[in-house]
From TrEMBL:
This is Alanine racemase. PANTHER family: ALANINE RACEMASE, ALANINE RACEMASE, CATABOLIC-RELATED. Keywords: Isomerase, Pyridoxal phosphate. It comes from Flavobacterium sediminilitoris. Catalyzes the interconversion of L-alanine and D-alanine. May also act on other amino acids. Belongs to the alanine racemase family. The active site is at K36, Y275. CDD domains: PLPDE_III_AR. Substrate binds at R135, M323. Pathway: Amino-acid biosynthesis; D-alanine biosynthesis; D-alanine from L-alanine: step 1/1. HAMAP family: Ala_racemase (MF_01201). It is an enzyme of class 5 (isomerase). The keyword Zinc-finger does not apply. One of its GO terms (molecular function) is alanine racemase activity.
Amino acid sequence: MHKNSIIEINQNAHKNNIDFLKKTFGKKVILSSVVKGNAYGHGLKEFVLMAFANGITHFSVFDVEEAKIIFDTLGNKVTILIMGFVADDDLAWVISHQIEFFVFERYRLAKASKIAKKLNQKAILHIEIETGMNRTGFKISEISKVAQFLIKEKDNLYFKGLCTHFAGAESIANYYRVQKQIVIFNEASSIFSTFELHPKIKHSACSAAAMMFPETRMDLVRIGILQYGLWPSPEVLVSYLNSKKKKIDPLQRVITWKSEVMSVKRVKSGEFIGYGTSFMAKNKMKIATIPLGYSHGYSRSLSNQGRVLINGKRCMVIGTVNMNMLTIDVSEIEHVKKGDEVVLIGTQEKLTVSVASFSDFSNQLNYELLTRISKTIPRKITL
Ligand SMILES: *Cc1c(COP(=O)(O)O)cnc(C)c1O
């Protein structure tokens, strides 16, 4: 078992976030917990168990591998929706396990209907519309063909959802682009109506859209980053706070990342520390090494930049982040010894290292930083 570091995920913090989101979006809107990217680094299996205990029964993932992990963990107790990649070879498993999935090309539609027929079980489809992101989705011009096919194959295909995805709702700079996407989505929806096709649900919102554009909430919201206690961008947080009297962030960070001091040593003034010459000791220094590096997801761009907490004090990463090790300046900290707790993300005594502070120092998006945390690190649910 890997013991170099541990990720703790806090069930109460997640419950707090879910309660806030449900209150914001209202009872009629289904909250789908987006758990692609190993649940944004939180650990897929542990995270869905915890989320289920907190009342979540709908999960959205990117691919079949993730869907399988959720199915093996929670079985039929939850709805699983694949928003991205399904290989042809996996369609039979997906359909026979009643896993729902996005369809964005006619090839997939035909293939799904063929396999569903063979299995004698309807495929549960969410038809994705291309509204302006230019990634995946049916164009407006294709919709009548799609509609006709859905009608012809209605014994094999269940048109459960109509959906789209916004290209950058977290920034007001994209305001007009998002507005245009909403118009195109509504147009797609009315074309289906002319064929008497009415999907059970419509959905379009990610975290940012759900907060910034209430009309995008529809029947279901696909919420990733907010449920983890983080904001899609500072802009979305500011816009939320501006609308409220109480200027406090209602969300709580779910993740904590901890390691321990591996060894402590003293260095003479004028010595270089670590590989190369990126850091020279200007005075006598005391250095702690931590058994954690870029192979575990601690970005190399945090060389001479990162901050960690040891004995309740904030300390600097010095020198380059190595593959498996960090060196930390602990000159000012008394009694630091092997085995002392090191907090990479989270709170120790009165201080906190936030996820946002990483982005500031390493130019990584909070999304990127989190999903790069190695899968091999053990995850533990805490209260
Ligand atoms: C990742 C993703 C989401 C969730 O995005 P957040 O910004 O984390 O809420 C929603 N929809 C789709 C299609 C996605 O890929």
